[in-house]
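Researcher: Structure for this, please.
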Amino acid sequence: AATPVIFLTGEDDAQLLERGFAAGGVDFLTKPFRREELSARIRTHVEINRLRNRLEAQVARRTQKLTETLGKLEQANREILTRLTLAAEHRDNETANHLKRMSRYSVALGRRVGMPALRLEYLELASPMHDVGKIGIPDHILLKPGKLTAEEFEVMKTHPQRGADLLAGLDSDLTEIARQIALTHHEKFDGTGYPAGLKGEAIPLEGRIVAIADVFDALTSERPYKKAWTMEAAIGYIEKSAGAHFDPALVACFRSCLPEILEIHNEYRD
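Model: Predicted structure, token format:
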């Protein structure tokens, strides 16, 4: 296939010409022919072929370099997310296991709805970034052990937008998913959430998934200001909130993968 083929023929048939080109020929010369013309055409096609091979080699080298560069960029973005997650974890009163649990809950739900492998990997890496915007919340509000006042809660409600702003402009699929999760994990399916009051499938799928995973883990975890709910009570709350707080289709998926979710809960206890 890499060798240019010139047909020499005594036939003068348009159909034969079409068949020759379709078979991979690059040129036709009709008999009787002149040796000088044949030599010139051979030299031309050999040169064209040589230039094509050189161009393909250059493209292959540049493609490899681009692939390597993109790989390094992807690794850098993952490192950025990891470090931001650690920074948020140090500021918040959540535990590292909370992030592990809700990340794995999210993946279990994503797998149940049929997400492809790469998107599941991104979901696992990005979901712990849901509360990264809390880095910008003052300590007296973020670390308050009791119930927040109305004014304090309004400040707390700014953390999704803060997180999205922090993750904006990094220009990769992974960081864009992290940005969407940070921005939309407090949106509610019926449109009563914040910060934008998005409704239904206007909320990105990853945001809808993380909303369930985050609330379920918050309910079943002990905090300085509350006791942990029982599994039955937390599951009941998730199911009762289908169509209001949560996507009802995802709640059904949550119910169907409960054995895996309970296994995750037990494996990563605080």
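Researcher: Any notable elements?
Model: Residues 39 and 165 are 66 Å apart (CA to CA). DSSP finds twelve helices and two strands in the chain.
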